[in-house]
UniProtKB/TrEMBL annotation:
Organism: Pseudomonas lundensis
Pfam family, one: Terminase_4
Name recorded for this polypeptide: Phage terminase small subunit P27 family
InterPro entries given in the database record: Phage_term_ssu_P27
Length: 173
């Protein structure tokens, strides 16, 4: 049976060709041009009106910087919503855990049941889940050192905003 469009190997990205010394002998200028083009137009997505106040604050803090670095487009709205909501929940559960542990007999994050069994407190479990979700969603935008290695930021266009890109890059990289 003959193959279809999904048969065979996927095409390698231009950066892979360039990093491997271009063994396929493709035109170097075409590869460099392809590498420098963003996959989607750089533009901040509109912030949803249904986000919590904490998530809105995180959105307003991070989206302008991602747009300046060329790491976000209108297509990324849902991924950014996931990150902002998870970051807001992480903050909420951290504060709730701190508030709850002051008046309780929690030793650290261990909860002891009447039977004597011990487990992580529910607050810590909820906080850990929010942290995991924030880290996963944030890595899509290069919000961790390891994730930034695989992202390519669009080079700044001249000096339209003197030192603005440097300030943002110093803040996150």
């Amino acid at each position: 049976m003959a193959g279809n469009q999904n048969s065979g190997r996927h095409a390698k990205p231009a950066i892979v060709h360039l990093l491997n010394g271009n063994p396929s002998k493709k035109n170097r200028e075409v590869l460099l041009h392809e590498q420098s083009q963003p996959l989607a137009p750089v533009e901040a997505p509109p912030m949803p009106d249904w986000l919590s106040a904490e998530a809105q604050a995180e959105w307003e803090r991070i989206v302008p910087d991602l747009e300046m670095l060329g790491l976000i487009s209108r297509l990324d709205r849902q991924a950014m919503v996931h990150y902002c909501e998870a970051a807001a929940e992480y903050r909420f559960w951290t504060l709730k855990m701190r508030e709850f542990s002051q008046g309780q007999s929690l030793r650290g994050d261990v909860q002891t049941y009447r039977s004597g069994a011990q487990d992580l407190s529910v607050w810590r479990k909820l906080r850990n889940d929010a942290e995991r979700r924030a880290n996963e969603a944030g890595s899509r935008f290069g919000l961790s050192p390891l994730a930034r290695r695989s992202l390519k930021a669009v080079p700044p266009q001249g000096e339209l905003f003197p030192n603005e890109q440097k300030r943002i890059a110093d803040k996150y990289f």
